[in-house]
Structure formats: C-alpha cells, structure tokens
Amino acid sequence: MEDNPVQSSNKWLDDLSKGLGHQLEAITVEGLKIVKALEGFLLCNFVVSNRISDADGNWHVGAMATLIDDVGAAAIYSYGGHIKASIDFNISFFSTAKIQEEVEMEAKVVGDKGRITSVIIEVRRKSNGELIALGKQWMASHNNSNKAIRSIKCNSSRPE
C-alpha cells in the first residue's frame, strides 16, 4: 500500500528537522514544527537559531532560502506524491528575522500544469504577521503519477 503523500511529506520534513539528511539542510530545518498539513498545504512554525544567523544576528538569507525550498517541496510532495526538481525558484525579501525570533511559514500549491507544479511560500513574523519573504517555485517531474496526468490518461481514448 502506498503511503499517504501528506504523511510522507510531513515525515520527510520532520526527519530533516531531526538531523536526518544532508548536513546543510538538517541545520537549516532544525526545529521546524509542522502546525497543519493538508494536501498541497503546509503551515509551519520555526524559531531562528544562532546556527543559521549572519554576523549581525539576522536569519541568514541562504538558510532562509533553503528552508523555503524544502517547505515548498514538501507541499508539492503532499499534493503530487513525489519530489520534483525545481525549474524556477525566486524569493522576494521584505524584512529579516533575528536569532530566537519565531516565524510562520505557509506553503500552498497554486498551480498544476501536468508535469509542472507551482507553490507559493510566505514567511511571516509570528508576533505581528509582517511579511518577511515570499517564495515562488515551479517544480517539474518526469513521474507520471501526477494527478493531472492521471486524469488526462483516464479520459483519453488515444493509445499511449
């Protein structure tokens, strides 16, 4: 029996936050708490540690980008059932967070074009909801288990 994609994406993020995986990702994701997980949606809380800060005590933008990428990938995984490769990824930074500051991350799948899927990731200051960063990501896959592709195949009378 195949795992539930929402549960699998949660396990992947949870394992990363406990240090299982690549060292850079493990340090960046350490302490991430999943608050709510639905198909194509993740809400997480995160406290910025001193391990991922810059010289001024701010959340390092590289560490922030890594976490945005991972949370976005997990939201897409919960939607499509598999990890895809990023083909377009951009982040707009509006503010920063300091060491020990809590932020909230919300990732939503907003587009599905068959083999490519889009997600938007918002990072907000937990105390007042101020937008810190906005990530937009498109991911592609050669895996034909995507919902839109399954739907097309089921409704098609054309042979493959």
Automatic annotation (TrEMBL):
<comment type="similarity">
    <text>Belongs to the thioesterase PaaI family.</text>
</comment>
<protein>
    <recommendedName>
        <fullName>Thioesterase domain-containing protein</fullName>
    </recommendedName>
</protein>
<dbReference type="InterPro" id="IPR006683">
    <property type="entry name" value="Thioestr_dom"/>
</dbReference>
<dbReference type="Pfam" id="PF03061">
    <property type="entry name" value="4HBT"/>
</dbReference>
<feature type="domain" description="Thioesterase">
    <location>
        <begin position="57"/>
        <end position="130"/>
    </location>
</feature>
<dbReference type="InterPro" id="IPR029069">
    <property type="entry name" value="HotDog_dom_sf"/>
</dbReference>
<keyword id="KW-0378">Hydrolase</keyword>
<dbReference type="InterPro" id="IPR039298">
    <property type="entry name" value="ACOT13"/>
</dbReference>
